Amino acid sequence: MAALPKKPVGARCMSQSPVKPQRDTRLDVLRGLALITIFINHVPGQILEDLTTKNFGFSDAAEAFVLISGIAVGLAYGSGFKVGRRLEMAKKAVKRAFTLYLAHMITTFITLALFICGAWLFHRPGLLVEINILAVLMNLKEGIPALLLLGHQIGYNNILPMYGALMLMVPVILLLNSIHPLLALGVSGAVWLLAGIYQIAPHNMLIADYWFLNPLSWQFIFTIGIVAIMHVKRGGRLPQHPILFILASGYVALSFAWVVGHLWALGNSLAALGLPPVLTGFDKTFLSLPRLLHVLALAYLVINIPALSSALRRPSDHPLTIIGRHSLNIFVAGTILAMVGQVLLYVTNHDQIFGPVLVIVGIAVQFAYAYHLERKRIGGSAKTISMGGTAPIPVPVRVNEDQKFYRDSRNN
């Protein structure tokens, strides 16, 4: 009998290796849209700002970004948070928080340099009183340590400190969720409510004020994202009911009419009920209930409207997919570009033609940077495979989209 041909070593590895599921790109696309929207909003005073989501509902891109981040963290850390590996995952979360701190320091000191240089080069000292810069310049001895200790935050540079604080909470959130998801939601909701009622938040060191985005409040939406995706990963389903769909649609429509119709005076009627402002107001620092419900209603509609959900599922090489995949790098680049835009708009007296052009160019630069990062990522992966020789090559397969929002997330 003729001897059977031997399989190549690589083929044996491929046949024995577990199949790696294909990445669901909807979360990347949503994150990419949130990053672009945040960038546009961080260059205020130009017409494109009027077209972003904050003008059509109670919440804005920041709430969406944090909810998406919670989902991504649940995917990246949740499965590994098991007995025997919890300390390892906690270290990963702390390391990520430190990375976010370093990124924040980069954007903060570049922002300072941009505004100081702009004031000097263009003879516009008014730049030095913008976005909380003057408090640092008036007292550098206390101002620089305050920046380093997150006791003072430059305007439009306040998302990363909050996100870093949330990452430090990840081990606790995952521990509570491992005991029972309702325990995690209950504790998180109680912290949110108490922080809002009693105005509990990290204080600034140079001015009498709180952090602009209070992590004790924003952890609730972050936790909701983690708990929801962990429930789906265990094979569960998110609530689906016609009444819930009607309520979510109605609330989004109400929010739209309220904001577009400038019905803010109605807020006084809510305040007259005597309830805490966190339940009836629209404060962003303490993530008031109307804002929280709005972003959750939007998320519910995205999940339950098939056409919308399908439209968000783009190819892996789609521009929005790529920009969302490299979220931290793009966020840092976008923040720096937004600060450049603020300086230039200031010295041009907010020219209504120059402003939109500046924003469009900034968005194009971010897409180009994302493609550069993607080429480096693909090149690095190809190099690793070629050097490994017999390394298994994962074969993508279609996943059950009704059960999974997103699989295999490494960028949170």
In a nutshell, what does this entry contain?
The protein has one domain (21-379).
Please characterize this protein's 3D structure.
The protein contains 17 helices and no strands. Helix content is 64%, strand content 0%. The protein has one domain (21-379). α4 (86-121) runs antiparallel to α7 (159-179). 36% of the residues are buried. The protein has helices at 9-16, 26-41, 61-77, 86-121, 134-137, 140-148, 159-179, 181-197, 215-233, 242-260, 266-271, 277-280, 289-304, 306-312, 319-325, 327-347, 354-388. The chain starts with 8 loop residues before the first helix and ends in a 24-residue tail after the last helix. It is mostly helical and 412 residues long.
Mean pLDDT: 88
Tell me the radius of gyration: 23 Å
**What would you call the structural class?**
mainly alpha
Report the helical percentage: 55-70%
Q: Please indicate the percent range of residues in DSSP E strands (runs of 2 or more).
A: under 5%
The number of distinct helices, counting runs of at least 4 residues, comes to 17
> How far apart are the termini?
56 Å
Main sheet specs: none
Task: Note poorly predicted spans.
Answer: 1-20, 389-412
Succession of helices and strands: HHHHHHHHHHHHHHHHH
Q: What is the number of strand segments?
A: 0
Instruction: Give the overall shape, derived from the CA principal axes.
Output: globular
Structurally, how many domains make up the residues? 1
